[in-house]
């Protein structure tokens, strides 16, 4: 079956612009996670959805970051007034929410803010 | 702040040897532990998870968990050049679905 997909694979934008990153989870997975990863670091948690609601958004760095999952499937991560420090790979993962909650990652979106 | 620590490496081993990757964690309440493999420029891929003390084997991979000492390790037997990657340890805090990732250990298997 299809895995997690993310679009675009690469996004180059200018400082101050608005960007949207999309994640399409594995069909039937109720849990969806956003992470970002900088070079030489592990993924850093941003936000977790269970169904349509954000169950935990404690990892969002500030109010420029927002994410939605209106129908409990596809999710969009939105970043306003981008800054050069937002440059990273943004990873999405989904899980069926089983007892041990194994997460499966998408290919990521590489965001570059010039 | 929940912490997951890994030696960043690189760990270099010859082909056919056993590679041993280690991870320590700070939250005594953690119940499940995950190892991901990440090739350069790719996303993490789940290879093992363990939740009971002791060893869990899957093919050439063995995960070892010692909750009393708060460490989890990954052994790769008969290492192959294709095993060259960064190995990430991920540990959810007790009662949470959110894993904290270590920074990963870079493994190089040379022919």
Oligomeric nature of the chains: heterodimer
Largest sheet of chain B: 6 strands, mixed
Fraction of residues in β-strands of chain B: over 45%
What share of residues are in beta strands of chain A? over 45%
Cα shape of chain B: globular
**Which regions of chain A are unreliable across 5 or more consecutive residues at pLDDT < 50?**
none
Over the alpha carbons, how many angstroms does the gyration radius of chain A reach?
Answer: 13 Å
Q: What pattern of helices and strands is seen along the backbone of chain A?
A: EEEEEEEEEEE
Largest sheet of chain A: 7 strands, mixed
Unreliable spans of chain B are none
Tally of contiguous helical segments of chain A: 0
Helix content of chain A: under 10%
Through-space gap between termini of chain B: 40 Å
User: Please, what is the average pLDDT of chain B?
Assistant: 94
How does this model look, in words?
- The complex is a heterodimer of chains A (114) and B (111).
- Chain A has 114 residues and is mostly beta strands.
- Chain A contains no helices and eleven strands.
- In chain A, a hairpin with a 6-residue loop joins strand 4 and strand 5.
- In chain B, strands 2, 4, 5, 9, 10 and 11 form a six-stranded mixed sheet that branches.
- Chain B is globular, with a radius of gyration of 13 Å.
- In chain B, 33% of the residues are buried.
- In chain B, strand 9 (85-92) and strand 10 (99-101) form a beta hairpin.
- Chain B has 111 residues and is an all-beta fold.
- Chain B has strands at residues 4-5, 11-14, 19-25, 33-38, 45-50, 54-58, 61-66, 71-76, 85-92, 99-101, 105-110.
- The termini of chain B are far apart.
């Amino acid at each position: 079956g299809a895995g997690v997909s993310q679009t675009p694979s690469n996004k180059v934008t200018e400082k101050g612009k608005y960007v949207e990153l999309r994640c399409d989870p594995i069909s039937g997975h109720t849990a969806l996670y956003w992470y970002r990863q900088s070079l030489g670091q592990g993924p850093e948690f941003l936000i977790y959805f269970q169904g349509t609601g954000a169950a935990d958004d404690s990892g969002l760095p500030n109010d420029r970051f927002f994410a939605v999952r209106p129908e409990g499937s596809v999710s969009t991560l939105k970043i306003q007034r981008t800054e050069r420090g937002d440059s990273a790979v943004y990873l999405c993962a989904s899980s069926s929410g089983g007892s041990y909650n194994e997460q499966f990652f998408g290919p990521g979106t590489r965001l570059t803010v010039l | 702040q929940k912490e997951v620590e890994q030696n960043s490496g690189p760990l270099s081993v010859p082909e056919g040897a056993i590679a041993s990757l280690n991870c320590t964690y700070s939250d005594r309440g953690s119940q499940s532990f995950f190892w991901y493999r990440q090739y350069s420029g790719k996303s993490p891929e789940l290879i093992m998870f363990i939740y009971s003390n002791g060893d869990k084997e899957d093919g050439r991979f063995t995960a070892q968990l010692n909750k009393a000492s708060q460490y989890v390790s990954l052994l790769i037997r008969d290492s192959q050049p294709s095993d060259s990657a960064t190995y990430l340890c991920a540990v959810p805090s007790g009662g949470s679905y959110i894993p904290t990732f270590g920074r990963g250990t870079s493994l190089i298997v040379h022919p």
